[in-house]
Design goal:
The complex is a heterodimer of chains A (476) and B (466). Chain A is mostly beta strands and 476 residues long. Chain A has three helices and 30 strands. Chain A folds into two domains: 170 residues, no CATH class; 266 residues, no CATH class.
């Protein structure tokens, strides 16, 4: 089966360095604001410099796609500058406004969103402004987005800005957004208006992302899926799918596993946020590399994935597939006996309006099921096979990486329904699977089919970029 | 591609003490030649072109003479005159338009000398479609082959002895594929297998093997170091001597138990790919454990770009030990000691492993509600799919080079190079739920699929005998 063209864009290890004492609530606000910005502008932006791109949010009028503090999206303390005359030059870190003077010296330490409407360039991202040169020119850290120069070995895989003009841009103060007064239940509703490009005839499915109460205010995170895209400005209509709250208490390879919350309410710490998204999928991962349990938790990153999977059944019987996974402070792993972690997606059923865990199946590279004897003393847990060389072809210098399909057989410990046995309802496009024994951050693939190992045998879309100075997938 | 099936050919003999593993080699070979148009490259004591076995052949038979003679096959008297001696022989047909039902092996049960007809056991509740221009050949029955076969050989004590001047029966056939790949069907030398009085575990393979590759000789051998999938022959080492079991299981074959079997074959007359299953009439070990299966040829939907050598595109799956007495059963490949395995030819230009790569949950021990490593297809609550109102079938991939040993000796037997590579999709085969009936056809109007066992489904057409 050919590899999907995901048109992924990247926000690579966004460094959150909050004022001490910001707390978990602000951390959640910060991260949700990043999600909003990246999805609404970097992935789906039009030439509107204030509002997210047309179709990217489930709006029926105005800003009824969200319930957030006043000024959260585009208030004057949050949105500091905009323009559409941005210019960058291949290999240089400078961002220049062609004909305007939007930048003050105060933008240093703030963040620049860049995009072009309809672009698939990975330059469309969010960048730390590291220096102010003049009112038209600033210096960015290109490694947050950018495009790796290829081939590898000539100038490495360091992401660089490419030569572009007429770039749309916004300067955002995320600290200011984080410090707004949040309440449990604040949300925004994203929309997948390109879903029909994956599955013919599919509606623009939607997902409400919501900060909720966990151990403390807004420490947890919830996703409510709407396959038919029924947001009416205040709720989903005609669909009642259970909110998918983050799962936890699972030890991942990183040693984490404290609670199911996305954050801990013990003050603040340096956090790192990576967003990988394309028109039909959205991945957000957060964590910290520091000790202690402060806001961003170390040793157990949190993560969500929302995507339009490839439909494998007739359209009439499965018109609008959309699925997600969501876990808090657990690190990354594919396995447990009840299907947590990366080994499943929550998937609404069109037959009984319930959202259940659907285990992900991948092709076993060593036979008809996961064997134990070929590895003897090596532990095996699904794809987490101890001997990575089973997946590597030296003559080809190529790795075996399998796609995943969602199945709903009867599974111990999980809700299921008699008569709903299903071997392969949909194909997951945003994640692949390989040996869990591979090193973290191993980059595999070529052409548009590039992936990175985030641990536990889980591969995410990537572009061969190498990041130094900031921990990638912190907490995993 | 035109698919031809042999639907349920019943061996002669007695139910509980037959020589199915010997018959299986013969029946497969005459199906490959007579139905799929394989040609003989070389042989030793396996001369299927001789008058001993091949009695006649032609291209203008007709089947279903109407009235009370729907199971009569007419052949031109100018080519061959039927006689009572033909009764119990095997009529091999290649149908020009009904390959799923009128092709295959059919027992001759009677004759009509007036019209020069064979009466055949059609082994189906259906009436044959009327058809002419059928390719036909008459072969001697399998008992004659059994009487002539040489499976004791004269091997020496070193290397792989079943080659060159060795006398055990073997044959190399060339497929009709445009890339002209070959298959070797060989009764393995008793010295190599350790059979014939020696502990089977000291041998390397099943009592008979099937090997795909290139470079077959007039003696019916591939060569040591050549392009083929036979581990002991490639390394010229039977590898079954004490202290060195590394090659055990690195050659595979068609090896049903010694019970009378019913044979079901599938073959593509353009690629030459073949799937064979032998189903015991009366299983003695358990309902599903007897019998055997073999599968070889060219994958479908091959991974691109193609490898540099055509041998690196081939695969063979089947029984790979004597250790369970031939009760290899019809299963997807299990752990290496299970008596089933697969081989391919690597980019490293050596034989490497090959497996059926099935979709399984990313974590084990969960499906089915029971202990043990139950894959999803074995879910106890599996049923028809609500979304499609049918039993769901998934294609099966062939992946080579992901096992470095093929037997129960584990790390002490690591000899195969690891170079994991998807070859392509397994021809004909689909994976589905395992709790569908044993050798039961699907319930759609055309009975389009046959479930053999263990979730293995193959194309079918029409009714099946119970």
């Amino acid at each position: 089966m050919p590899a999907p063209v995901l048109n992924a864009k990247f926000l690579r290890s966004f460094h959150v360095n909050p004022t001490p004492g910001i707390g978990a609530t602000a951390c959640m606000g910060w991260v949700m604001r990043l999600m909003f910005e990246f999805w609404g502008f970097c992935v789906n932006g039009s030439n509107d410099l204030v509002n997210p791109g047309s179709g990217s949010m489930a709006t029926t009028a105005g800003t009824d796609f969200m319930s957030m503090p006043i000024g959260w999206a585009s208030g004057s303390t949050v949105l500091l500058a905009t323009g559409s005359d941005g210019q960058t030059t291949q290999g240089l870190p400078y961002f220049q406004a062609g004909s305007s003077t939007p930048f003050s010296s105060g933008v240093v330490g703030k963040w620049l969103t860049t995009w072009q409407s309809g672009s698939t360039s990975t330059d469309d991202s969010i960048y730390l402004i590291t220096s102010w040169l003049n009112s038209s020119s600033i210096v960015l850290d290109p490694t947050y987005g950018g495009t790796p120069v290829s081939p590898i070995g000539t100038s490495g895989s360091l992401p660089q800005l490419t030569t572009r003009t007429n770039i749309n841009y916004r300067v955002i103060d995320y600290q200011a957004a984080a410090n707004l007064g949040y309440a449990n239940g604040d949300y925004f509703v994203m929309q997948f208006s390109n879903a029909s490009n994956v599955n013919p005839g599919q509606a623009s499915s939607q997902a409400r992302l919501r900060g909720t109460a966990g151990q403390s205010t807004l420490t947890n995170f919830g996703i409510t899926l709407s396959p038919s895209g029924s947001w009416n400005g205040t709720s989903f209509t005609g669909e009642v799918y259970t909110e998918v709250l983050s799962e936890g208490n699972i030890a991942g390879p990183g040693g984490g596993g404290h609670t199911g919350d996305w954050f801990f309410d013990f003050g603040s710490s340096n956090g790192y946020v990576t967003v990988i998204a394309g028109p039909n999928f959205f991945i957000c991962q957060i964590g910290s590399a520091e000790g202690g349990f402060q806001g961003f938790s170390e040793g157990g990153g949190s993560c969500c994935t929302i995507e339009i999977p490839q439909r494998l059944y007739p359209q009439a019987s499965d018109p609008n597939p959309i699925c997600c996974m969501n876990f808090g402070s657990t690190g990354v792993g594919v396995g447990s006996q009840v299907g947590y972690g990366f080994a499943h997606r929550f998937f609404p059923s069109p037959y009984d309006s319930l959202t259940r865990r659907w285990p992900i199946m991948a092709r076993c590279p060593t036979g008809s099921y996961w064997h134990s004897t070929p590895w003897q003393s090596f532990g095996i847990q699904g794809g987490n096979i101890g001997r990575w060389e089973f997946f590597y072809n030296q003559p080809q210098n190529k790795f075996i990486a399998g796609d995943g399909i969602l199945c709903m057989a009867t599974l111990n410990g999980q809700a299921s329904s008699a008569g709903q046995f299903s071997l392969a309802r949909a194909r997951v496009l945003s994640t692949r699977f390989t040996s869990g024994a591979y090193q973290y951050y191993l980059r595999v693939g070529d052409d548009h089919d590039k992936w990175i190992h985030v641990g536990g045998g889980v591969l995410w879309p990537w572009d061969h970029a190498v990041i130094s100075g900031r921990p990638l997938f912190a907490g995993f | 591609m035109t698919l031809h099936t042999c639907r349920d050919f019943l061996e002669t003999g007695v139910t509980l003490s037959n020589s199915s593993w010997v018959y299986a080699q013969y029946l497969t070979a005459i199906f490959l030649i007579g139905t799929l148009n394989y040609v003989i490259v070389g042989q030793t004591n396996f001369n299927l072109a001789s008058a001993t076995y091949l009695k006649a052949s032609g291209n203008t038979a007709s089947i279903n003479q109407g009235g009370n003679d729907v199971y009569a096959v007419a052949v031109p008297a100018g080519t061959y005159v039927v006689s009572a001696a033909d009764i119990s022989r095997i009529l091999v047909l290649k149908s020009p338009g009904n390959g799923m039902v009128n092709s295959g092996l059919f027992r001759i049960t009677g004759i009509n000398t007036t019209n020069n007809w064979f009466y055949i056991n059609y082994r189906s509740g259906n009436v044959p479609p009327v058809e002419s221009g059928v390719q036909w050949s008459v072969y001697e029955n399998e008992l004659v082959f059994y009487g002539n076969v040489n499976y004791t050989g004269n091997g020496s004590s070193t290397g792989y002895t079943g080659q060159g001047t060795a006398t055990q029966s073997r044959i190399i056939l060339q497929s009709p594929s445009s890339i002209s790949w070959q298959v070797r069907i060989a009764f393995e030398n008793s010295v190599d297998t350790g059979a014939n009085g020696t502990s089977p575990s000291s041998g390397f393979s099943a009592g008979a093997t099937m090997t795909v590759g290139y470079g077959g000789t007039v003696a019916g051998d591939f060569t040591p170091g050549g392009q083929h999938t036979h581990g002991p022959l490639f390394f010229n080492n039977r590898g079954g001597v004490a202290g060195n079991y590394s090659l055990l299981g690195t050659s595979v074959g068609f090896f049903p138990a010694d019970n009378q079997c019913r044979h079901y074959y599938w073959g593509d007359d353009s690629t030459g790919s073949f799937f064979g299953a032998a189903r015991p009439v009366v299983p003695t070990v358990s309902t599903f454990s007897n019998g055997s299966m073999v599968h070889f040829g060219l994958p479908e939907d091959e991974e691109l770009p193609l490898p540099p050598h055509n041998a690196q595109r081939l695969f063979v799956m089947g029984a790979n030990t004597l250790t369970n007495g031939g009760n290899n059963g019809i299963y997807f490949q299990g752990d290496p000691p299970a008596g089933r395995g697969g081989m391919a030819f690597g980019l490293s230009n050596q034989p490497i492993s090959c497996i059926y790569s099935l979709y399984n949950p990313l974590f084990g021990n969960t499906f089915g509600g029971t202990s043990g490593n139950n894959p999803a297809r074995s879910s106890l609550n599996a049923g028809d799919n609500q979304y499609t109102a049918s039993t769901e079938l998934l294609p099966v991939d062939l992946v080579a080079g992901t096992m470095d040993y093929m037997n129960g000796y584990g790390f002490n037997a690591e000899i195969l190079i690891l170079e994991g590579r998807r070859l392509g999709r397994a021809p004909f085969l689909r994976m589905g739920r395992t709790n569908y009936g044993y050798f039961q056809v699907s319930t759609d109007p055309n009975n389009s699929w046959l479930h053999l066992n263990d979730g293995i489904y193959l194309p079918w057409q029409g009714a099946i005998l119970p």
